[in-house]
Amino acid sequence: VIVHDVNELTEKLFPIVKAMQKHFSAGSGTYYSDSIFFLSVAMHRIMPKEITQIIQVDLDLKYKTNIRDLFDEFDNFPEGAVIGIAREMQPVYRHTFWQYRRENPQTKVGDPPPDGLPGFNSGVLLLNLEAMRQSKLYNQLLEPAMVQKLTEKYHFKGHLGDQDFFTMVGMEHPELFHVLDCTWNRQLCTWWKDHGYSDVFDQYFQCEGEVKIYHGNCNTPIPED
């Protein structure tokens, strides 16, 4: 077990993610402490080179299977993919991309699965650090000018940290991501059902199959065994 000091990590992270914080943070400015919410985005830059793969998970999870099986998902990454991540299961990005969707009525951005692009949820992440280090495209997308360009294109203003970054990048470069089955990150939050999207909510929220990991996001109770 190796323990990493959160202050040291934040110190290394801040210069890398400072530019994106203003686009994907809840606060109005760029807060030093907020950098930790972007840890996954630049993990390949701050972890020792000998660490080649990492699973990063939220704390509000309940495991129904061996996490070793999740690690095997790294073997399913298509060529060029650097991150494994499940889709977002609420219409949050239908909401966030409202202006882009209005200007581009034929877009799949923000639409529900299986044909739409609902965005990602970062509660369960597979980070192929070696692939992230090697990917010229991924590292270009971390540059402030590229972040600015994409946020302007999609009129994007988020508040969910790394999840927002991955979602926006995924709209432009889906080839960077291996999409995990919803059963690996079965989100339970239903906030958006009661906030204007009850008519389409179930299209995002449905998940077939035996759940492997429950995610009690937005403080939602997780079912007992």
Question: What features would you describe in this structure?
Answer:
The protein is α/β, with parallel strands linked by helices. It has a single domain, classed as Spore Coat Polysaccharide Biosynthesis Protein SpsA, Chain A, CATH 3.90.550. It is 35% helix and 14% strand. The protein has ten helices and seven strands. It has a four-stranded mixed β-sheet. Strands 2-7-6 form a three-stranded mixed β-sheet, with no helix packed on it. β6, α10 and β7 form a beta-alpha-beta unit. The radius of gyration is 17 Å and the shape is globular. It starts with 5 loop residues before the first helix and ends in a 10-residue tail after the last strand. The mean pLDDT is 95.
What is the spatial order of strands in the main beta sheet?
A: 1-4-3-5
Give the number of DSSP strands. Answer: 7
Overall average residue pLDDT: 95
Calculate Rg over CA atoms.
Answer: 17 Å
Q: Judging from the principal axes of the Cα atoms, what is the shape?
A: globular
For the record, the count of structural domains works out to: 1
N→C terminal distance: 29 Å
SS field, number of helical segments: 10
Helix content: 25-40%
Output the CATH class name: Alpha Beta
Q: Secondary-structure element order, as H and E?
A: HHEEHEHHEHHHHEEHE
Protein name: XXLT1 xylosyltransferase
InterPro entries: Glyco_trans_8 (IPR002495), Nucleotide-diphossugar_trans (IPR029044), XXLT1 (IPR042465)
GO biological process, one term: protein O-linked glycosylation via N-acetyl-galactosamine
GO molecular function: xylosyl alpha-1,3-xylosyltransferase activity
